[in-house]
Design goal:
Blueprint lengths: L1 H5 L11 H14 L12 H17 L31 H12 L6 H25 L4 H13 L1 H6 L5 H19 L10 H16 L7 H12 L2 H4 L1 H21 L11 H4 L7 H16 L4 H8 L9 H21 L1 H6 L8 H22 L3 H23 L8 H13 L5 E3 L7 H6 L2 E3 L5 H6 L4 E4 L4 H10 L3 E2 L4 E4 L5
Parallel strand pairs: 1-2, 1-3
Antiparallel strand pairs: 3-5, 4-5
Length: 496
């Protein structure tokens, strides 16, 4: 009965919902901030690795089975990688960006196209999340969830970043929504498109990143509530699992043939032994969720979200669905403990469920005067203060992410691109960070040292923004191809 009541009426269409349209436009507007700046902002090294796959596709043609990038070093995998293989997520996004760049926007920088595509994926996530919440909560909670997702400073920055996580969230939410909708069909047969949409989007999500699996628990909860033990005996369950996981298993088998292109990843689990220690809780719950994402004051609304109760006919299912989703995300933080502590972008997949509970907290405050007899003035002052401070303090932390911290690196890269042949191999020392190498639009090595070995491997030029001992020795031995107060370019073929 609870399912019948819950989905007696389908969600409103976008054209009939001016509020969600306004939220989408607001989300688009704030994400266009600094859209055309160089790819040298926060976490530019990871963004550069993602973007450079598309760069190589544009230069050499699209080969989905052999994605390559600019880094020829052994830093990511520990193995020599002379072909520059990049065997991580299935390169469907990079291929799509390359096609758009070549055929539609040839004069637009590739990273700007990536950012626009990320924005589109983020707004799609917003739209799907709104309709997903609408299945379990009243419309105002869904609208508040969408609004928070649209303007949360952390989410705004990463929603225009060149990272696979943005697309992972979009497709995972669509898969989750499709599974839930599938169980609204009385006979939930294979004839419904929701089943096949869930299969396709689930498979794509896993190909983008296997961490999409952490969206499965709330889907499993809904399936169990609808079918109980029959879920374990229904052939459609196993068909779904087979079709969804087969592409991922095949891709993992395939990239296993290219170990030099697979970055080390076991360290992401608990390599430094930080899991469940004081530092683990401090970094993830205080620094990341508390300070960076929710600006301290948003924690008040998040906590109040646990006190909110859905409407009577949705109460039980809503609590279980979102509760299982939250538990799944906590499991994600715990399993990939070191990765989550090391990199703040790993928390991107937490944003949807955080937005849901913050929206529930706001709804609790809005209803508190009527339901619990609290002072309306007090509730509204608390809501206004907490919301304003949360956004302000979060923005205070995130605003620096947009800054170009090393403009000399960008200038040096442009000089290399202008002065060297397109097939030249470059040494661009930046502590192993590939952001500098990306600016050159050339393949090569993002770290110095072993210069003779690099020359034997085909290195043609050395570019640096710091005149350290290595650079001074090369200037003495090889001369200078180009030099300003900010950078030096050295032709390694001129060395004595």
């Amino acid at each position: 009965m609870i399912f019948k009541n819950l989905w007696a009426k389908p969600p409103s269409k976008l054209k009939n919902n001016l509020v969600i349209l306004a939220i989408l436009l607001l989300g688009l507007g704030v994400r266009l901030y600094n859209i055309n700046t160089p790819l040298a902002d926060w976490h530019s090294w990871r963004q550069a690795d993602t973007a450079s796959v598309a760069v190589e596709y544009i230069k050499n043609g699209i080969d989905l089975l052999h994605p390559k990038y600019l880094d020829l070093s052994n830093i990511p995998s520990g193995l020599e990688n002379p072909q520059g293989y990049r065997m991580v997520e299935f390169p469907m996004v990079a291929a799509r960006i390359a096609v758009v760049s070549e055929n539609v926007l040839p004069n637009v920088p590739i990273h700007v196209i990536f950012r626009v595509y990320s924005i589109i994926s983020s707004l799609f996530s917003l739209f799907v999340l709104y309709h997903l919440v609408l299945l379990f909560e009243k419309r105002r909670v869904a609208e508040l969830t969408a609004l928070i997702f649209a303007i949360l400073p952390y989410n705004v920055f990463y929603s225009r970043a060149v990272l696979p996580e943005i697309h992972l969230v979009a497709v995972s939410l669509m898969a989750l929504y499709s599974v839930v909708r599938f169980f609204t069909i009385p006979d939930h047969s294979l004839k419904t498109p929701w089943y096949w949409l869930a299969v396709v989007t689930g498979a794509i999500a896993l190909l983008l990143k296997p961490t999409a699996l952490f969206f499965a628990l709330p889907a499993l909860y809904v399936g169990w509530r609808k079918c109980k033990g029959k879920l374990l005996t229904d052939y459609k369950t196993y068909l779904f699992l087979a079709l969804t996981f087969a592409p991922l298993l095949w891709w993992r088998w395939w990239i296993g043939h290219f170990p030099e292109g697979i970055p080390a990843f076991t360290w992401l689990l608990n390599s430094n032994g930080i899991r469940f220690k004081g530092a683990f809780f401090h970094w993830l719950f205080a620094e990341r969720i508390g300070r960076l994402i929710l600006g301290f004051w948003g924690l008040i609304l998040l906590a109040l979200g646990f006190l909110h109760k859905a409407e009577d006919d949705k109460k039980s299912l809503s609590a279980g669905f979102f509760g299982s989703w939250l538990i799944s995300m906590l499991a994600y933080l715990s399993i990939f403990a070191t990765g989550n502590v090391q990199h703040d972008y790993y928390q991107i997949i937490l944003i949807p469920i955080i937005c849901v509970y913050v929206a529930k907290g706001i709804e609790f405050l809005l209803n508190a005067p009527k339901v619990y007899g609290y002072s309306r003035t007090t509730c509204y002052i608390l809501l206004t203060t907490a919301s304003a401070f949360a956004l302000a303090f979060s923005w205070f932390e995130v605003r620096g992410y947009y800054q170009i911290n090393n403009p000399a690196m960008v200038e040096a890269g442009q000089a290399v691109d202008r002065l060297t042949p397109a097939d030249a191999l470059i040494i661009a020392p930046y502590g192993g960070d590939t952001a500098f190498l990306y600016q050159t639009n050339r393949r090569g090595w993002p770290i110095g040292g072993q210069i003779e070995k690099r020359i034997q491997q085909g290195a043609d030029y050395y570019v640096t923004t710091a005149l350290d001992d290595e650079a001074k020795k090369l200037i003495e031995d090889c001369g200078v191809a180009d030099q300003t107060k900010d950078y030096t370019v050295i032709n390694l073929h001129q060395c004595n």
